[in-house]
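HUMAN: Can I see a protein plus its fold?

ASSISTANT:
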Amino acid sequence: MILSGTVWHILAVVFLTLVLQCAEVKGDADFESVRVLMTKDSSGKGGDPKDKYWHESVFHPHYDGRFIDHELDYEDQRTNLTSLMQSYLSTMADLGAETWIIHGTLMGWWWNRKIMPWDSDIDVHVAADTMAFLANYYNMTIHTVRTTHAPQGKNYMLEVNPKYVDPSPEDRLNTIDARWIDMLSGVFIDITALHRKRYHPGVMFCKDAHRYRVGPIPPSQGNMCQRLIGYCTQEADIFPLRDSIFEDQPVKIPYNYAELLQEEYGRVSLTRTRFAE
């Protein structure tokens, strides 16, 4: 049987697709393929372990060195972080991707519904199936978003770590599953997927070793709950998510937000008005 040119073309495309899918991932997207204004790559790619996907900048861990070669001054950083948060929340809402703020970002919500003045990073969660949705349909997509400080619109890139498919906390080099990146200032949001524990469906976890309850735990399972997440309450930690406002945008927050913050930062973190490093 002699194959036609069209059939050969189809087979070649299929073969190339398989090769690309099986290829070893060396790191985040190549500088030349994503750079905007920069002529030099300021990421820490050269000195990072070979299995690490993200290569933060050589001058600050909360900047992407593919897009900027210096740290912003305080006011510029605050402005860009605000736009970053607003653009992320509005875009995820448009895509139908459920997400919520967590860690220090949630603490900022507690105190003033804004990013903490000293913070230079933003943390959010999504469920594992949402991460898969973003990876399959929106990885490496660029979104132009208008915000309060950028009414003309700015470009943001959603990049997914291909190692998101491995939920093991043992992969300490790849605890961040995706990032929402400002392609002009280099600031970014860390996006982490929340997974269900296979043998304990009432518990969810992230690769950064945080554990969360997703439903009331019967008294008979109290000891198991204590071992897995270090504490027990009578209510779920994450779901159902609550609606609120953050940086003047609609936002989702964990159901048991106060106890989560107390467990992570201590009880006084919700009442002490003076910050100390």
